[in-house]
Amino acid sequence: MKNHLFHLLPKSNTVFLNSTDSYQQAYNMFILTNYTALPVINKKGQYVGTICEGDLLRVLSLSMTHPEIILDTFEIKDIEFKTKTEVARINESFDRLVSLAVSQNFIPVVDDQGVFIGILRRQELIRELINVVTDQIPGALNEEGES
Q: What is the tens place of the pLDDT at every residue in 17-64?
């Protein structure tokens, strides 16, 4: 089995938001990428949570009844993230990663100081799991779903 860091999409290739980004910046990023959830990091580069489209919709709804909420200056750090995404450390076991992937589309990976270094996507972990099963069980399905 390959080291899971082989599948890591590094921070430099990951779409993420900064906690000081405005609502409008976040909204625009969701529109541009077509993603439904994005990691958020703070000024120190530490992972602080995952924001999803529903979080933005809740703020939009609140802004309609609370005129003091100005979306152009409303920052991501002021939004409550409803999605609780668990992170993985660099040395996380493959079993734990697969367990996390069951309920998360991506797994944020952080170093020992909580600094965001990238993500592991569910699809890569599933592919690796298929390879493991195929190698261990004769006649098991290959990546195309054939035996």
A: 999 999 999 999 999 999 999 999 999 999 999 999 999 999 999 989
pTM for the whole thing? 0.83
Residue 32 in tokens = 């541009």
Q: What is the CATH number of the domain that holds 37?
A: 3.10.580.10
Give the residue among 7, 67, 76 at the shortest CA–CA distance from 37: 76
With cut-offs at 50, 70 and 90, classify the pLDDT of residue 128.
Answer: confident
Q: What are phi and psi of 23, to 5 degrees?
A: -55, -45
Give the position of tokens 């541009």.
Answer: 32
CA–CA separation, 117 vs 137, rounded Å?
A: 34
Beta partners for residue 118, in sequence order: 10, 109
Question: Quick one: tokens of 106?
Answer: 């991506």
**Separation CA 104–CA 108 (nearest Å):** 10
Residue 48 lies in a domain: yes
Q: Is 141 among the domain residues?
A: no
Domain that holds residue 39: 4-136
Instruction: Indicate the number of domains in the chain.
Output: 1
